[in-house]
Amino acid sequence: MKKYDVIVIGGGAAGLSGALALVRSRRSVLVIDDGTPRNAQAEHVHNYLTRDGVPPAELYALGRQEVIGYGGEVVTGTVTTARRDGDFTVELADGTTYQGRRLLVTTGLTDVLPDVPGLAERWGKDVLHCPYCHGWEVRDQAIGVLATSVMALHQVQLFRQLSDDVTLFLHTAPEPTDEQWEELAARGISVVEGKVEQLEVEDGRLTGVRLEGGRVIPRQALAVQSAMRARAGFLTDLGLETTELEANGIVLGTAVQVDAMGATQVPGVFAAGNVADPRAQVVSAAAAGLMAAGGINFDLIGEETRLAVAARSS
Ligand SMILES: Cc1cc2nc3c(=O)[nH]c(=O)nc-3n(C[C@H](O)[C@H](O)[C@H](O)COP(=O)(O)OP(=O)(O)OC[C@H]3O[C@@H](n4cnc5c(N)ncnc54)[C@H](O)[C@@H]3O)c2cc1C
């Protein structure tokens, strides 16, 4: 069986960017991808300098072409397990196995959405999470923020930057503090107490938010906080677990822990993009993939140099 220098698991922005740097360093690289990038529901990618507005599928197709153009290989499949046997063996759902000297894990994350009828169907369209990804597209609209955690208090202020008509639905979030109530009032954000029952959709567009009891508040867009879970279940045989990542006391999601060059605590296994940092956007996931590729190439060079020195002195 062919042994690749590097197997990249996940061919989104992080994986393809890492693969590109590695093939350009004359490394043999296999990218395995199952075609379910996180932003698949979105029509366009924003905030990717020089490619603002590109459809996600087009960006990833271009990336694949660039990797293949330098001799990289890309296959479609889902990795189910990875184990160490000197080098690494990864197994796909169809039973195919591949061997590599290093692994770059770039499988992204899963957004677990609030369980509100009508919400999942509108995800990536007029149900949003990220003001930087789609905020401009809903500017000046009637925007709601569905609060399921304290994160909503930050999110609502970010969306207030984009519209004068912003409503916070307290839903299942903890009661705001006195200071937060003051901040909401000072910024002209209206607050609706009570639980949301479902979203109202007409002609394929969000029209409102229905509360328990039947009251409907007209809204054109709704921001939510998804629970962000690293797609890393297949790493457990390698002894690699995910941990909760926090910022300012708020749990952002789960992630594989990495150092600045993408190295995990398992030697030879690197990770980048949303699987290691739920905050990463497309451009920063690509940048992290590039850094991890640098870490892997340097790690391989170290191993090859040690072997060359040993061979020379024997
Ligand atoms: C609706 C929506 C819209 C967004 N819009 C924007 C935007 O406009 N601009 C922006 O910068 N960011 C946007 N984001 C965030 C963006 O999607 C992420 O920052 C980006 O996808 C992270 O890249 P990644 O390479 O880490 O992960 P992904 O892009 O998710 O790529 C991971 C890849 O790994 C593959 N994979 C996963 N598990 C396996 C497995 N076991 N075996 C094989 N392959 C596997 C998947 O098929 C996928 O292709 C948006 C997110 C969402 C949810």
UniProtKB/TrEMBL annotation:
Domain FAD/NAD(P)-binding, chain residue ranges per copy: 4-287
Catalytic activities: [thioredoxin]-dithiol + NADP(+) = [thioredoxin]-disulfide + NADPH + H(+)
Top-level taxon in the UniProt lineage: Bacteria
Cited InterPro entries: FAD/NAD-bd_sf, FAD/NAD-binding_dom, Ferredoxin-NADP_redctase_2
Keywords linked to the UniProt accession: Flavoprotein, Oxidoreductase
Record's keyword annotation contains ATP-binding: no
UniProt cross-references to Pfam families, sorted A to Z: Pyr_redox_2
Gene Ontology MF: a single term: thioredoxin-disulfide reductase (NADPH) activity
Protein name (Swiss-Prot/TrEMBL): NAD(P)/FAD-dependent oxidoreductase
Organism placement in taxonomy: Bacteria, Bacillati, Actinomycetota, Actinomycetes, Propionibacteriales
